[in-house]
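Please check this.
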Amino acid sequence: MFTGIITGVGRIAAVHDLGSTRQHGKRITVEAPAGYLGDVGLGDSIALNGACMTVTSLDPGQNRFTIDISAESLDKTSGLAEVGPINLEKALRAHDRLGGHIVAGHVDGIGTVTRFAPVGESHELRVLAPAFLAKYLAYKGSVTVNGVSLTVNAVHDAAQGCELSINLIPHTVQNTALHALREGSRVNLEIDLIARYVERMLGAGVAPGKVAA
């Protein structure tokens, strides 16, 4: 479980194939900020651009760790098999502050950046989300973009999808890998967990408090 508050910006340093076919995944080597891995152990969960992954090897002295990512996960995410900056978040501990919103680290869909430009002291980020996610996205609701918990400022539905407008304050731009986004960049999206359950309750055909026979 995560909060969408990025705890470090790392860098994918190397990508290695785990096999010779499309059914094989990849082993990713990540460089973390100095001291970041001090409380991390083998098997711990770290979200990479919003996707929950398991630490498979660890070299704190070199500030490096590896993760193995399956072909299925690669197919359902973006930016996890390319050298470059990446958002990192360690798993939530029971006594931590919930500074963002409840994030599972499960990518629901891939969006496309349609605008990333300065507006005053901030930046406007617009993302075209897949149409099937539109019902989960609402004005002033929460969404996770590449692992960052953000507030939706506007929603515009269209035939090709649902365009979100998000305001990024300077701190967010400077302290996450979102600064590297450009028009056309693909980003990982996770909808609000509460919206997911509300949709299920409304669509399951069972009255609240009752169990289907």
Observations:
- The chain has two domains: 8-90, 109-200.
- The two ends are 32 Å apart (CA to CA).
- Helices lie at 71-76, 170-175, 193-203.
- Residues 193-203 form the longest helix (11 residues).
